[in-house]
Amino acid sequence: MKLLTHNMLSSKSLKGVVVGYPLKIEAYDVKVTEVEFNPEFIAKVIPKIDYSVLIRAAEYLGHVGKLPGHVPENVEKNTDFLKEVHHALLEVEVVKGDLVCPESGRRFPITDGIPNMLLNEDEV
Amino acid sequence: MSRPEHLAPPDIFYNEDEARKYTCNSRIIEIQTKMCERALELLLLPENESCLLLDIGCGSGLSGEVLEEHGHTWIGIDISRAMLDIAKKREVEGDVILSDMGQGLPFRAGQFDGVVSISALQWLCNLDNSKHGLRKRLDVFFSSLFACLRNGARAVFQFYPENDDQLNLLESAACKAGFSGGRMIDFPNSKKARKVFLVLMTGGVTTVPVDSLAQQSRCTVGKNMKNKNGKKDPLRGTRRDWIMKKKDRFRNKNKEVKADSKYTGRKRSRF
Ligand SMILES: C[S@@+](CC[C@H](N)C(=O)[O-])C[C@H]1O[C@@H](n2cnc3c(N)ncnc32)[C@H](O)[C@@H]1O
């Protein structure tokens, strides 16, 4: 699971859960794979993501690098910043771990990089 | 011919064996690729821009690879662990999640620039539907789909509806969730080439009455599909597609039609 995905995942489909965001990460195995850098895409995605959630996740995984606490101005021209965001969003991957619902504590296991968001019938 | 969705639920049907056979079959690869190309065309994304897309029922990533090739970043969900394991083994670029669309898409609001789904939606109406409460699953699915799309974005499904009732049911559930749009059929009169798409739009026309959705869809979709730069209309396809469709129609009526050739639909040069 990449941090871009984590930035969007919510457990609000669970019965009784209202926001279900952000899911807490508990990681046991993390890997980094190189992904082609596309500055336009990153610049476009930055306003959509929850930046503080990204920072916290990257920090926890030990990959915050030189990411500043806040999004700087004129990101389009700030290649260094875009590269850092690119790395955190797309190159860092949780291979094994858990995602934990902030409201109910329900755990969603991540195995072989695939988060299991399936619910039991009585949870829907 | 029996329908796989009548045989077993999708997570059982697409086991390791089936997932492997599916992904290695060159004919399947070719068909899925073509249909995803078409779905991508129907999404009408801004030209030359990388977008963030969701692939529902992404399976082993055959459809997702088409999205990659067009420079998009994608996330996929699927209910079959075996299919997703193969996607991982094949090192697709997209990130994949094990999830059942009928339980609601697990995303926060307004994230995706578009959604494609190739050959998966008919599974949502599978044999266990009484147990699962089909209506509820459809409502949960379409409302979560509407929510996770960026305003103005589209979702395009290629799928194999079992009959007209099923198609109507899906359309009305989508409409109830706030979507406009509806069915779009390629090669409607050719049994072999016929392909059904459900083209759903957020924003735009919002007050389409439920029962007239089906009849209106063609023109609703058509209107919004007008291409700004006057390029080929992806809904109608190329001139050749149009001629081929017309020929198909004529053949169906047993009229005499010239054989297709590589020149079919080409402009002839005048001397
Ligand atoms: C024919 S395959 C298509 C896979 C891929 N889109 C392609 O073009 O090759 C249909 C896929 O839909 C998935 N599917 C069926 N029901 C589903 C559900 N309720 N939620 C998510 N995925 C589902 C199946 O597991 C299967 O991988």
From TrEMBL, chain A:
InterPro entries registered for this protein in UniProt: Trm112, Trm112-like
UniProt record similarity statement: Belongs to the TRM112 family.
Official protein name in the record: Multifunctional methyltransferase subunit TRM112-like protein
Entry-linked Gene3D superfamilies: 2.20.25.10
Lineage per the UniProt record: Eukaryota, Metazoa, Ecdysozoa, Arthropoda, Hexapoda
Superkingdom of source: Eukaryota
Organism: Trichogramma kaykai
Automatic annotation (TrEMBL), chain B:
Stretches for region Disordered: 249-271
One Pfam family from the record: Methyltransf_11
Protein name: 18S rRNA (guanine-N(7))-methyltransferase
GO cellular component, one term: cytoplasm
Assembly description: Heterodimer with TRMT112; this heterodimerization is necessary for the metabolic stability and activity of the catalytic subunit BUD23. Interacts with GRIP1.
Species name: Trichogramma kaykai
Superkingdom classification of source: Eukaryota
Record flagged with keyword Cytoplasm: yes
Predominant subcellular localization, coarse grouping: cytoplasm
Stored PANTHER family: 18S RRNA (GUANINE-N(7))-METHYLTRANSFERASE-RELATED, METHYLTRANSFERASE-RELATED
InterPro entries registered for this protein in UniProt: Bud23-like, Bud23_C, Methyltransf_11, SAM-dependent_MTases_sf
Domain Methyltransferase type: 54-136
Domain 18S rRNA (guanine(1575)-N(7))-methyltransferase Bud23 C-terminal: 225-269
Places the protein is found: Cytoplasm; Nucleus
Family statement drawn from the similarity comment of this UniProt entry: Belongs to the class I-like SAM-binding methyltransferase superfamily. BUD23/WBSCR22 family.
Keywords: Cytoplasm, Methyltransferase, Nucleus, S-adenosyl-L-methionine, Transferase
Comp. bias (Basic and acidic residues): 249-263
GO biological process: methylation; rRNA processing
GO MF annotation list: methyltransferase activity
Catalytic activity annotation: a guanosine in 18S rRNA + S-adenosyl-L-methionine = an N(7)-methylguanosine in 18S rRNA + S-adenosyl-L-homocysteine
Tagged with keyword Chloroplast: no
Function: S-adenosyl-L-methionine-dependent methyltransferase that specifically methylates the N(7) position of a guanine in 18S rRNA. Requires the methyltransferase adapter protein TRM112 for full rRNA methyltransferase activity. Involved in the pre-rRNA processing steps leading to small-subunit rRNA production independently of its RNA-modifying catalytic activity. Important for biogenesis end export of the 40S ribosomal subunit independent on its methyltransferase activity. Locus-specific steroid receptor coactivator.
